[in-house]
Amino acid sequence: MEFPFKFFVFLDLNFHIYQFHQKNGFACMMLSEFFELFQFLFVVTFTTFLFNCVEYDILFANRAVNHTGPGQNPLDRNKVTLPDAILPSQQCTERIQENSWIIFLLIMAAIFWVYRMIKVFCNVLHYWEIRQFYIKALKIRMGELCNFTWQEVQDRLISLQREQQMCIHKKELTELDIYHRILRFKNYMVAMVNKSLLPVQLQLPLLGNLVFLTQGLKYNFELILFWGPGSLFQNKWNLHPKYKRAGNRLELAQQLSRVILLMGVANLLLCPFILVWQVLYAFFSYTEVIRREPGSLGARRWSLYGRLYLRHFNELDHELHGRLGRGYKPTSKYMNSFTSPLLTVLAKNVAFFSGSVLAVLIALTVYDEDVLTVQHILTAITVLGVVITITRSFIPDEHMVWCPEQLLQCVLAHIHYMPDHWRDNANKSETRDEVAQLFQYKAVFILEELLSPIVTPFILIFLLRNKSLEIIDFFRNFTVEVVGVGDICSFAQMDIRRHGNPLWMSEGQTEASVYQQAENGKTELSLMHFTIKNPHWQPPQESSVFISHLKEKVHQDAQGGPPTQLLLSEAPLCSSLLSNESGNAPDNLLASVLAHPILTASGLPGRDRRFVPPSTAASAAASVLASLSISHSQLPHASRSHSHVLLPSTHPDSTMYCSDRTVIDSMSASDSRIRSTTMLSEFALAEMSLHAIYMHEVHQQNSLPHQRTSGQWQNPMPMRDLISNTGSQTHSGHTAVHLSSMPTPLRLGGWTEEEEEDAEEEEVLNRGSTPKQDSRSSC
């Protein structure tokens, strides 16, 4: 079958197919492109008009206006109208022509706009080919595109390759091949952040350790490394051969250093223009939002650094956004659990004084509306309203009770990555500051973007250049060529043998040195995430061995864990303890796993701890995962194939824990809800969350013997030191410690057991005094 479009660019086609699906098709993409052109044109022309064509003395009533003419009302002669403040077109043109600086800026803007217009025109042609590919090859009409998930589009791509052989170098495509093509450069970026190669962490004299990564800086990194002039890649899928040889590494490092220097100088020369654009764009974008919702600046968002630090290898954009979106509420609750008593006192008093003045002004305007004609009275009312809104955001709710340790565990369940020194330190400000690097205020994001044109040149010239040799070595050592895919980052292969970490359940299965290991268990967690997201994928032998080993350990640790039915019966109470507002079955299941250790140690009425042994979150997670695995093994083949989204392949080594049967059957009586695709997807996410909790718990216990034999406990360290020092503490001969055999004390995260509370109250009564209470409740 012949298609009237080109397939020789199939190596790059997968990326555009994915973007086409995520941006909802041809019409939406083209409208976005054209409106982006129009938006740039509007900002430039409107700004030029405001600076050169408005008479502000008349607009601000600094100069009187006298309207004379027949039939003119004498009362309206001095009334200022909008046309009075706008200069005639001829006078406006003369003002622009007299200002050479304005003319230069307009010429630069025109050149850039023409360049963007040509690029948009090329994109229209290219996206039209993608549209034809969807219609004729994938048999998906544009009106039905929104009804297809990416998983379904991906399955059609794999089937099409078997029929048409679009990629001539490989007979069949796998899910991993498609992910590699889509995420080729992003996997490199994730790996470089994981190995602390990119200079995004700054140590400033007064501000301390800061993370600075903006859209502009990230764009420059990608321009230098991947697709700009003088970059390391000779095209979109192959690294230049000279960077694969070690003989001339010093010469290549000097060459890369010169490229970085030129790029830094170019950014320095363009700094005024970019800065002007950033200020104008921010003004037009956020001024109305700030006026309408002043508290929006106090909202939080995942930072660019956080998105790279928390991203799995081979995790698509929509998968990452969905995962971080589910972690938004628990992370916000954790960050809100920290308050400054001094700031609270100041905020209450500032809110009182501002509110008093505002109340008087509002009362006066209600009594007589002529008060509004007083100069700056509306400005005062607006400013006072903004001040009150901002100060109230710093006043905590007196009735809220926060449990930092449990909230941080909820955060971990969704973001999947957490430095070791955060554990048992959730109530410390240092931990909160490091979380804030991943989860920043929107106001901080805007400020960083405004400062980016100034800071970016100095980071490129003085920091990135010093890492030229390390970058050359990184791309040489961690680039592999895959047939039919091209050159990819070796970390993206999720090869346990090459990049595994012995402290993350891969001991005896990895040959990686400290330099080759991915930090924070990223290889192991990425492998689990990809296998759950793509259950039909057949992992290689080393990965299958790791998955089988993980399954065996889960079953072993589940023997000492609580029964699954007990966890399910505790779900409503656990959801209440962790302030889970969603109330759906997967979130309730996750809450029961996280809060079960609290319940077993809390001495709640009606709970006899002689029959409910203390447990950890790891044993609870293992119990649920093991029951899911056993249930899946007992299902007939026909029922297993009911949902291809969550159920694994029949390969024994690659079978993951089915998450769409036992728990759903026990928590919901509605067959329609069981078969809901959305619910099945939610349980798949909950399954990965359980794996993340379990693997972190086992990692912590594997690290305990090493920390004890080293003679001292590991002190909390900044995130940048954590990443570089994680692998250096690994002992080659250490053995894994099973959760069921660990006699470690239960971590309660600040919850006090019943006997201790009774003893404290009795002691207080004997002294005849009252216990000291904090002004704000906490766990």
UniProtKB/TrEMBL annotation:
Keywords: Autophagy, Lipid transport, Membrane, Transmembrane, Transmembrane helix, Transport. GO terms for biological process: autophagy of mitochondrion; lipid transport; piecemeal microautophagy of the nucleus; protein localization to phagophore assembly site; reticulophagy. It is found in: Preautophagosomal structure membrane. InterPro entries: Autophagy-rel_prot_9 (IPR007241). Residues 728-779 are annotated as: Disordered. Residues 752-763 have a biased composition (Acidic residues). It is a multi-pass membrane protein. Residues 767-779 have a biased composition (Polar residues). Its main location: membrane. The chain crosses the membrane at residues 100-118, 259-284, 342-364, 376-395, 443-464. It comes from the Eukaryota. GO terms for cellular component: autophagosome; phagophore assembly site membrane. Belongs to the ATG9 family. Phospholipid scramblase involved in autophagy. Cycles between the preautophagosomal structure/phagophore assembly site (PAS) and the cytoplasmic vesicle pool and supplies membrane for the growing autophagosome. Lipid scramblase activity plays a key role in preautophagosomal structure/phagophore assembly by distributing the phospholipids that arrive through ATG2 from the cytoplasmic to the luminal leaflet of the bilayer, thereby driving autophagosomal membrane expansion. This is Autophagy-related protein 9. The gene is ATG9B.
